[in-house]
Amino acid sequence: QVQLVEAGGGLVQAGGSLRLCCAAAGSNVRRNSMAWYRQAPGKERELVADITIGGSTNYVDSVKGRFIISRDNAKNMGYLQMDSLKPEDPARYYCSIRGVWGKGTLVTVSS
Fold this sequence. Notes:
Blueprint: E1 3-7, E2 10-13, E3 18-25, E4 34-39, E5 46-51, E6 57-59, E7 67-72, E8 77-82, E9 91-97, E10 100-101, E11 105-110
Parallel strand pairs: 2-11
Antiparallel strand pairs: 1-3, 3-8, 4-5, 4-9, 5-6, 7-8, 9-10, 9-11
């Protein structure tokens, strides 16, 4: 059974950075694609970035050039490095593997 736990969210000023982490238990991140989603209050959950088994990455246009998705196979962790955070980035961020979600970590950006 896959279990995911996100961490690393918090309050940051616009232009600042955060690094989100996703710890995976019951699943080998090296053998699965992984994705980060976010959901802001009153909005639909949206795909932010994903990384395939082969390491190819994809990003929603609004975060291209600012966010980087990665994983550490040895630690069985996934990451989302978020730089140049904007007032439109605040949301609860979730990682997902094989349709399983964590509880998310909250990102707040002050202007």
